[in-house]
Amino acid sequence: MRHGHVVSGSGKVIDETLAVFMPAGRSYTGLDQAEIYCHGGHQVVRTILDLIIKSGARPAEPGEFTKLAFLSGRIDLSKAEAVGELIAASTEASYEASREHLVGEYSEYVGSLRERLVSILAEIEASIDFADDEADTIDPRHLNKTLDEITGRIDQLVATYEGGRIIREGYRVAIGGRPNAGKSSLFNALLKQERALVDHEAGTTRDYLSEWVDLDGYAVNLIDTAGVRGEGSQVEKAGQARSRELVAKADLVLWLADVTMPDWQDRSAADIRDLEYCDILLVGNKIDLVANSGLVCPDETCLISCLTRDGLNKLRGLIFEYINDSTRNMISGQIVTSARHRNCLELAGRALEQTKLAVNNGESSEVLAFEIRRAVEALAEITGQIYTEDILEEIFSRFCIGK
Amino acid sequence: MQDFDVIVVGGGHAGVEAALAVARMGKRAGLVSMDAGKLALMSCNPAIGGIGKSQLVKEIDALGGLMGEAIDATGIQFRRLNLSRGPAVWSTRVQADRIGYNQYVVDRLEHHQNIEVVEGTVVAVSVESGKACGVVLENGEPLSSKAVVIASGTFLGGLIHIGEKQIRAGRMGEKAATELSENLSGLGFEVGRLKTGTPPRLDGDSIDWSKCERQEGEEPLPLFSYRSTRELFKQTPCHLTRTTEKTRAKVSANFEKSPIFSGQIKSTGPRYCPSIEDKFYRFKDKPSHQIFLEPEGNGTNEIYPNGFATALPEDVQREAIHTVTGLEEAVITQPGYAIEYDYCPAYQVDRSLETRVVKQLYFAGQINGTSGYEEAAALGLMAGVNAVLAIEGEPAFRLDRSQAYIGVMIDDLTTRSTTEPYRMFTSRAEYRLALREDNARDRLAGYAHQYGLISQSEFEIFQDMILNTENEVKKLRSTRVKVSRLTDLKVKITKKDKVSLADILKQPGIVLADILPLLNEFDSMFSEDREVLSRAAIQIRYQGYIDKQEREIQKFRKQEAVLIPSDFSYTDILGLKTEAREKLSRFRPGTLGQATRIEGVTAGDLAVLAVNLKRHNAKSGQ
To answer: What is the ipTM of this complex?
Structure first.
């Protein structure tokens, strides 16, 4: 590591920095690589990057470093996927999931399921290939029990995918409601309370407002659908369509109602009736303007005032509970974060359902083996290659076979 | 100097099929054997077939090979194993009249105009500018040819062990081939060592048969070959007995006297065919093992106690045999022994079985690290065909894993390190439901015809059978019967009203025989040919599963279609891990698919390889 200064073309010292050179073969990408450590602060980083780019560099494509590392054989496919997620992970919980994936806890877990299937398969294969020997016959009840257990585990893993997505991509919270309910105020209030992860870039490239906040370790993507509201009927129509789209994609909708409006309860109930397919939290705003005692509201309404910040902590706690609910069924460390893995797991699960069906129909063992093998192969796509030798290995270690 | 198209070294099961394939393709084969009378001897158990192996025999037969015909003609007990399971794993196993089988083969070879059996011992392969061009015999006589197939079996550097006693031999009482092994090393081949074993032989008259369980063969005889003449030997039962607690005590007390444990034998033997001392050693909790008493033939009293392979000293063998139920007074006519022999790890051949070091030199059978007559015969046949194709400048004949057990075997041999003698199992075949005894000809007759391994008339007869089978399948699918009429069926049909005959055949546990009475009710609407019907029934049974596997087969074939040039260099590829680089350079996979099956090559390595292959092929395409 060297100490020095980053200096601009005109000789002006930009920052005092440290730099490391990693020669080809020993770096992450396998190519010559250098790292510069500068002082914090957006401006310094920006200026140094600009300088480097001006001197002929180009920014890496998303995932390019990982791709290079993968192509140079530094990491394998499953690690590459995990690293990809690690980079995408913006908060602690996501980081945790990616890191565990990287060290292979998840891989080991899937591997252990695969091993159990290989062990069943070995038993069945032994009964076929060594029919003349004294291999035990398979007890269908015992087989079904084991299959049930493994299918249960696989289903559990598949169920973590949604949670995994939330951890990887963030939890999407959309703020909806009628005009003047105070959507933007709530958006800003929540932003003020939490640490914003990304600079505010309102209005320039997007027609809605979206910000990232860190909520107790979860990345939460806060979307203010108010941003789509425009003037004039045509724009308004387009805006409404977009607004609906955003709301539909959200994991949670905060439906904001102005408690000073008459019949706000009924109107809100009608408004959110169409949104039944996602989690909705009814939030009553502007409680500072009404007498507390006179407020009648539907169950589970969260009452707040963006102005006085009353109830905001409670709202925050409620959002956190929703996130926890969505990620609850995850076994620690075993979170499926890749769609490819989920597909493999689902394939394995289906093959095992077929196996159970075959067992119950009294199918002969070569058919059972066919289905279990499909499941084993699907799991092996996550953990690595399967060799028929594995099965034989298992047979020979467990059964005294051969004449 | 005698001149041949192809010289085959060794007259075992591999050598015989190699010579016959060459001869069928119209070329002259010279088969060199130490003893012209001992062709296709069964050095170990007197039986052909068994699970996984019978499928190989059917494939050999479909490719015009002799093994099926020979065993049909000389079999003394025919059985199908796995009948309680589905037809994909039904496997025929036939006890042979050992001498009868040998004489049948000798006779067939003697009468083939394209084959000459040369008695002698080969000491060297002649090589000219990287190509095999003949062999040299022990007496100095050279034989010339355009290609050479080596099928040396256990003779290559053979060393027999009985207790501490060691005998240089290729088989009990026959000398080993030591010079050839040195010659191969000299040519640059890596030579390794494997071990196998055989039980003592017993005098049948000294066995108390009343204490053993009789095991009858099957009627009608499930023959192997489509060409069988059905001139059959008298059928004889086998017997089954068990070792006792005394056997365990006797063998366990003498572990250290076995060369397997004493360190005298360093090479590995097959795990699926353990010696009796190995069984008691590794499975200490198992009190008893079953022993099959198999007759060696009709004209002999000799009995082969299958399951009692041993290399213990002769006196211990005798005492141990006497502890087995029914064998208390048994007389040993030949002691059991272990034999070590040389082989050339199969990474040294490509998928055509041609060696990489010497062109037009082929390895077949145990020299490739296999064990078993059927495995050897299949490799011999493929080597013979490819030797002829090479002479004619034609592309090699290769079968892949989705086409045949032969393809599975050659792929396994050329992509995996040998840790023990290789034996076929059905579990090695991932497309097992599609690779069956009954459809071997469907899979291979086209190739057999293309290469001239079967006659035109045989091919045409088979084409008719394919058409007939398709017709029967259609009829079985379209003919529906009322469920109420199916009360006699052993499986209950849950459908309500009517069901097609095909749907009945798909029920687990239902075989063709179960619906034959039903078929008879349709006045000669269905074929009279039982084989055609049975083929149709099996096709119907598995079609759903095979369709399900189609996606995987397509994926597999796609990877197999990505060829890797034989001179492709792995050393300069950035990004391959060292282990992958070493393994790939050693095994030289012929396809990307093969590369995926090499141990130690990870998904990452494969991605790197795939990218580089694309680049390489694009460059060379320009």
So the answer is: 0.90
Tell me the C-alpha distance between B597 and B605, whole Å.
Answer: 12
| Domains of chain B, first to last | 2-154+341-450 (3.50.50.60), 201-339 (2.40.30.260), 463-549 (1.10.10.1800), 562-620 (1.10.150.570)
Instruction: For residues A208 and A223, give the distance between their C-alpha atoms in angstroms, rounded to a whole number.
Output: 7
Residue B286 touches partner A, C-beta closer than 8 Å: yes
Whole-number Å distance between alpha carbons of B585 and B135: 30
Of A128, A122, A172, A158, residue with least CA distance to A143: A122
Give A187 to chain B, closest Cα distance, Å.
45
Structural domains of chain A, ranges and CATH numbers in brackets: 2-59 (3.30.1360.120), 77-160+333-396 (1.20.120.430), 169-326 (3.40.50.300)
Alpha-carbon gap, residue A358 to A367, rounded angstroms: 7
Q: What was the pLDDT predicted at A190?
A: 84
pTM, two decimal places? 0.80
Q: In what order do the strands lie in the sheet with A2-7?
A: A2-7, A13-22, A33-37
Average pLDDT over residues B101-117: 96
Tell which A residues from 169 to 188 touch B, by Cβ distance under 8 Å: none
Longest dimension (CA), chain A: 91
**Best interface-test mutation with B: which of A78, A121, A132, A136 has the largest number of B CBs within 10 A?**
A132
Lowest mean pLDDT among A214-223, A327-336, B332-341: A327-336
Q: Which of A285-299, B101-115, B276-290 has the lowest mean pLDDT?
A: A285-299
Those residues whose C-beta lies under 8 Å from the C-beta of residue A352, and which sit 6 or more positions away, are A147, A150, A151, A154, A371, A372, A375
- Range from B66-70, B173-177, B605-609 that averages highest in pLDDT: B66-70
Mean residue pLDDT of chain B comes to 93
